[in-house]
Amino acid sequence: MARRLSIAIVLLAVLLGYVYNNSHVQRIIYVSGIFRKPERTEVAPEDYVVIDNTLHCEDMHYHEPSGLIFTACEDHKGSRLRWFPPLGHFADPQTARMKGKLQIIDPKILELEGFSGPFVTHGIDVIDDPDKPQGEAVYIFAVNHKPNTEHYRENGDADAPKSYSVVELFHHVVGSGRARHIRSIWHPLIVTPNDLFAESPTSFFVTNDHYYSEGFLRIIEDVFTGAAWTNVIHVQLQGPEIVGGSDSAGVHASIALDKLHNLNGLGHGRTRDEILANGCASGVVHVGQIQGGENTEKTIQVEDVVELGSPVDNPTYFRDPYANDTFDASGIVSSGPTRGIDYFSNRGKEEVLDPIMVWKASPRSRKEKEEGVINGRRDWDAKVIFQDDGHRIRTASASVMVAIDPKEDEGRRRAWLFVSSYHASSVIAVKIDL
């Protein structure tokens, strides 16, 4: 029944795409993976590692100055099935099991100082503390989807949102094993937050990945590319720390980017002002520039769109530290399900195979761009760098690459690829050729 529902939903999207714009139909079918057979990239046993104690880690970020990978995970298997607003799961609002974790992949769990509330993790970002030497301390921004007490309290407001989603701000001294909670951040414009892009301790961007939090219209949002109802919010704080006050104290927010389909993950690009924003169900990554000065409302100007071949989440930019005049492996890395069509039938199951694809899109050289104009190609060369049939990891929502020094790898150009997801029992790492 669930499989038939998935097919029916995609067929509905195709019909809507045909009515809306004929050119969307082929793209919808391709990205959905309806005719795609899962594949598995074979790797040597010594080139494959399962990272223990990394359960349901939806997002990861590689912090280059410290050489550490930060991630946000859960504490109980199956917790995403009982309460996870981003998937429309509102079955169990009890907070006792909502014990999300910030972790470092060694791995190492950070003790959360001054924080005892429910923690339902989602997107995160990590930036250097500007008042410390680079790599010594960081600020960690993390989305937290808490149950809304206004809805669930005795005689609560049935019309109030089920989720009270906020952004938690932490400070971590690298090597300390602890993250100090600074404050929770909320604003009426932050409705369905997914991922974060931090500029400074007082300025960040956050995506609202849906207009509807549940129901049939949310499904339409997922599959119909014409449902361009999502946005990116710019948030400015009066200061990182507050004394007393509410979650909204000192918070100013404005719309930085809107009218795009299923905006989801955010990532840092090639420069300080370049931001990556993926349209998850559309299988695209929008490459934008941040506009506006310090302490002002900021906007995002989309300058390029990278088309990939499956739904994709949480883009990261791999900066090749060993690039030279003849070879540069830098590029956008993003991953997602091989068969997006199975999302609706699989998302509520505890045990199921969800195959994945990891993509890398590299910017073309000037010569390649000139040839591309003649051949009708875009400025990015996209390819699949890793696949799994679901036996090693269940679906994928984040991927980061860490280069291996060629001097330590017999001159080969390779990298460790880390892959995680909100449903996976562990983060995995594999060595891949560049």
Automatic annotation (TrEMBL):
Cofactor: Ca(2+)
Cofactor note: Binds 2 calcium ions per subunit.
Keyword Calcium in annotation: yes
Alphabetical keyword list: Calcium, Disulfide bond, Glycoprotein, Hydrolase, Metal-binding, Signal
Pfam families named in the record: Arylesterase
First and last residue of the signal peptide: 1-21
Signal in keyword set: yes
Active site, UniProt feature: 122
Annotated binding of Ca(2+), by residue: 59, 124, 194-195
Molecular function terms from GO: arylesterase activity; metal ion binding
Family per similarity comment: Belongs to the paraoxonase family.
Protein's name in the database: Serum paraoxonase arylesterase family
Organism: Trichoderma arundinaceum
